[in-house]
């Protein structure tokens, strides 16, 4: 009598959760991908490792439940590591929670105002330049961690100090052991895709960290490992004193940078994930609100900021996920790990995590994209390179602003494209045709060409090909026509646009 009831229950569950088996399997894959990255990003950001897990948990259990993009996965991202490290170094860990809280509230507001779709209008060259700059600073900084040394504060300082780092490491057994472990981790990550398919069922980052941990334990290598504080001990609720720091211009600038980078990276990731599957498309405003809700909770817990992460999202899709249940369950597995097995973190060697982030930083630099962009759109390639160099040379926030300013200037310049065609048959009026967009940016060139026309000949100025004629150009053209007509020739005949 019990068998039919059992069958009915099983059938009912399949109807309620038709893709549970696929989502369950995908959630385990995403968990194994996310675990080393959450810890690595936290350590590189200068915060307790557990806070990276907190952000991953919130990304699964909070953001994962909300509508927006059904298959992309959120958590701490390598793309924000440099900015978070700078914020923690300058303002302290307590203020980080306030910055992340403000970021989340602003994202919620922007999503409610339906501004999410406009992030797709941000120049791709600026976003790629931003990621390339982050990648360069991340690589340079983590190379010091690979060698077990402390990195300089500035991006240029990190790059300039690399020759000295190599020289110092060559004479230290501990540094060589640390460097060898980090280099081995990078080599495993690079070669992982060439291993047998059965081996590759384990995510590369997890496999590399596991191997590095085993090597460290087996040979007793003198390398630093992750410091464990415990999940609850790492959480710091922001106090009223920390909230008062929002009055600081520097803190507000950091909030703006967090909002811009986290939102752009999340929504660009959503667009990329949509190309990987045939399921429901991303609702950008709802996704921005989901990211905002996650960052608000992370801020209240004093954790790292979150973005949607393309590595975890791609792993989720490729593992066969069908609904948002997979990303919610991955957050549950992270929570269970943090609650039941936190002591395992203490065995993970820091050079291995640094190696993972060096590899991640390298993947942020679009080398092939820069080459193809230079062949087809040199202006865009220049914006990308200048943005990246500015981030390395100055700072993240100023570098992004410089990139955005260049993109706006390039767009304005292209929008003012203007062509002047002059037909002079030697007798009769000189015919001048203006086409395109006549703006004040092109005014000097327009006047130079018109004033070069013969002063003793009548002129016919045809403006019918103009798409736009601004007030400054209209006034200048009228003044030129009066001056030309005053020389005794026939009045300039103007065909209006």
Structure description:
- The chain is an alpha/beta fold.
- It has two domains: 18-409, no CATH class; 418-495, 2-Layer Sandwich (Transcription Regulator spoIIAA), CATH 3.30.750.24.
- Helix content is 64%, strand content 7%.
- The protein is built from 22 helices and six strands.
- The strands form two sheets. It has a four-stranded mixed sheet, with helices on one face. Strands 1-2 form a two-stranded antiparallel ribbon.
- Strand 3 (418-423) and strand 4 (430-438) form a beta hairpin.
- Helix 3 crosses helix 14.
- The protein starts with a helix and ends with a strand.
- 46% of the residues are buried.
Structure, briefly:
By secondary structure, this protein is of the alpha/beta class. It folds into two domains: 18-409, no CATH class; 418-495, Transcription Regulator spoIIAA (2-Layer Sandwich), CATH 3.30.750.24. 64% of the residues lie in helices and 7% in strands.
């Amino acid at each position: 009598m019990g068998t039919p009831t059992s069958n009915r229950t099983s059938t009912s569950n399949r109807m309620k959760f038709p893709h549970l088996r696929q989502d369950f399997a995908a959630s385990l894959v995403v968990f194994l991908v996310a675990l080393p990255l959450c810890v690595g990003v936290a350590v590189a950001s200068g915060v307790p490792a557990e806070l990276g897990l907190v952000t991953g948990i919130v990304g699964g259990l909070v953001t994962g439940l909300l509508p927006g993009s059904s298959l992309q996965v959120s958590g701490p991202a390598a793309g924000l590591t440099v900015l978070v490290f700078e914020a923690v170094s300058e303002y302290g860990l307590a203020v980080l929670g306030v910055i992340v809280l403000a970021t989340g509230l602003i994202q919620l507001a922007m999503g409610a105002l339906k501004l999410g779709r406009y992030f797709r209008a941000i120049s791709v060259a600026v976003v790629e330049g931003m990621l390339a700059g982050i990648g360069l600073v991340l690589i340079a900084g983590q190379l010091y961690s690979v060698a077990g040394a402390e990195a300089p504060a500035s991006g240029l300082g990190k790059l300039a100090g690399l020759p000295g780092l190599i020289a110092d490491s060559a004479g230290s057994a501990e540094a060589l052991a640390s460097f060898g472990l980090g280099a081995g981790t990078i080599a495993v990550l690079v070669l992982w895709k060439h291993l047998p398919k059965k081996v590759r069922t384990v995510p590369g980052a997890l496999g590399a960290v596991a191997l590095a941990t085993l090597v460290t334990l087996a040979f007793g290598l003198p390398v630093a490992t992750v410091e464990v504080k415990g999940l609850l001990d790492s959480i710091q609720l922001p106090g009223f004193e920390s909230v008062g720091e929002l009055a600081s211009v520097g803190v507000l600038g950091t909030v703006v940078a967090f909002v811009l980078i986290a939102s752009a990276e999340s929504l660009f990731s959503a667009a990329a994930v949509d190309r990987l599957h045939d399921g429901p498309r991303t609702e950008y405003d709802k996704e921005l609100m989901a990211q905002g809700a996650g960052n608000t909770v992370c801020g209240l817990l004093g954790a790292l900021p979150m973005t949607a992460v393309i590595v975890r999202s791609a792993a989720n899709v490729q593992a066969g996920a069908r609904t948002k249940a997979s990303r919610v369950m991955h957050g549950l597995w992270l929570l269970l790990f943090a609650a039941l097995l936190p002591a395992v973190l203490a065995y993970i060697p820091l050079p291995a995590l640094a190696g993972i982030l060096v590899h991640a930083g390298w993947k942020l630099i679009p080398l092939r994209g820069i080459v193809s962009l230079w062949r087809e759109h040199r202006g865009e390639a220049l914006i990308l390179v200048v943005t990246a160099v500015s981030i390395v040379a100055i700072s993240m926030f100023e570098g992004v602003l410089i990139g955005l300013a260049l993109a706006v200037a390039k767009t304005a310049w292209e929008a003012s494209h203007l062509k002047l065609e002059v037909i002079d048959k030697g007798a009769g009026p000189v015919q001048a045709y203006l086409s395109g967009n006549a703006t004040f940016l092109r005014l000097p060139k327009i006047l130079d060409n018109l004033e070069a026309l013969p002063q003793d000949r009548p002129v016919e100025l045809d403006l019918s090909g103009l798409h736009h004629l601004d007030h400054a150009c209209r006034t200048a053209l009228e003044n030129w026509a009066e001056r030309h007509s005053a020389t005794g020739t026939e009045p300039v005949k103007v065909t209006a646009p």
